[in-house]
From TrEMBL:
This is Alpha/beta hydrolase. One of its GO terms (cellular component) is membrane. GO terms for molecular function: monoacylglycerol lipase activity. Residues 1-21 form the signal peptide. It holds the Pfam family Abhydrolase_1. It comes from Chryseobacterium aquaticum. SUPFAM superfamilies: alpha/beta-Hydrolases (SSF53474). Keywords: Hydrolase, Signal. Residues 67-237 form the AB hydrolase-1 domain.
Length: 330
């Protein structure tokens, strides 16, 4: 996978003097980007290769004995949990924030069999190293799919489960046409800061941009300016395939852990919507319906709907998100 130098320099010219001119190129493991808390690495062998998994372990000054793990979405990494982690530690919670393999500061392997079960296994290994036996798990977007799989695999470890606008509440592979990994990779290579922003405006923020959204756009947009971007794009195509082909919704009925769903009802995120038949597309990603259906499938779960809120409640309406979260875990 050779990166086109001409494309690289063209993008730099396009962004100079534009709204994206403050962007800086970011390498594959974000080594030139500082996270809000100290970053640790777990080095391990997986699938016949050496990998490094980044995580933050944020400890409170006055511990309440509880630990919560925050799992990021596909277009994000652990850094966007900064405010949530600070408020949680102020309330006495220890906070574990991993970057999954293929994301953030963690390794971007060329060849890896991505699965939610494998990612859950990797994550559990970090908790074992830290000697954490009980944990509250919060997952956003793709992190919600991972949090669900983690809970199903390790129910004895998870005290409470919180799903914040998780994807995977419908089975995308029965609604949309399959895209090969090679096709996905070619699509990923076309991403720019502008295309990422347009996507987020449409699905996350209802075409209303605020300055506080910019840092989380810059983190993925900066990748597109670096020579490492093909490596990042390849991992993104592998994880897209994982999301498309590994639904968790059929197993929601098996989750017995106390569960809270925090759902922004304006969200319309749906993987592969553009590959679905035209008549199906408007029916995909309807979170005001999907939240209610999911609550019915997870026995005893609680649903808090945030009206007119998109895919990122903990960024868009932080206070409402925090109140829902803290009332459930305190």
């Amino acid at each position: 996978m050779n990166y086109s130098k001409s494309r690289f320099f063209l993008m730099l010219l396009l962004f100079s003097g534009s709204a994206f001119s403050q962007l800086k190129p970011l390498d594959a493991t974000l080594s030139n980007y500082q996270y809000p808390f100290e970053v640790y690495f777990k080095e391990f062998k997986s699938q016949n290769q050496s990998l490094k998994m980044a995580f933050m372990d944020v400890k409170p000054s006055n511990p309440n004995g509880k630990t919560i793990m925050l799992l990021h979405g596909k277009n994000f990494n652990g850094a966007y949990w900064e405010k949530t982690a600070k408020d949680l530690t102020n309330k006495g919670f220890r906070v574990i924030i991993p970057d999954q393999i293929g994301f953030g500061k963690s390794s971007k392997p060329q060849s890896y069999q991505f699965s939610f079960a494998q990612l859950a296994h990797n994550t559990k290994a970090i908790l074992e190293d830290l000697k954490i036996n009980k944990i509250i798990v919060l997952g956003h977007s793709m992190g919600g799919m991972l949090a669900s799989r983690f809970t199903l695999m390790y129910p004895e470890t998870v005290e409470k489960l919180i799903l914040e606008n998780p994807i995977g509440l419908e089975d995308y592979k029965v609604l949309a046409k399959y895209q090969t990994i090679d096709e996905a990779y070619q699509s990923e290579l076309k991403n720019t800061a502008e295309s990422y922003k347009n996507y987020q405006l449409k699905f996350y923020y209802d075409n209303k941009w605020k300055t506080e959204y910019q840092p989380w756009l810059d983190l993925i947009a900066g990748w597109t300016l670096h020579k490492d971007y093909p490596q990042v794009a390849w991992n993104a195509s592998l994880t897209s395939d994982m999301i498309f082909n590994q639904p968790v919704l059929y197993e929601f009925k098996n989750i017995k852990t106390p569960t809270l769903l925090i759902i922004g009802t304006r969200d319309r995120t749906a993987i592969a919507k553009d590959r679905a038949p035209k008549e199906i597309q408007p029916k995909m990603g309807l979170y005001q319906e999907l939240g209610k259906k999911t609550q019915q499938h997870i026995e005893g779960s609680k649903l808090i709907e945030l009206n007119n809120v998109g895919h990122l409640p903990h960024i868009e309406v932080y206070d409402k998100f925090w109140n829902a979260l803290y009332n459930f875990i305190k």
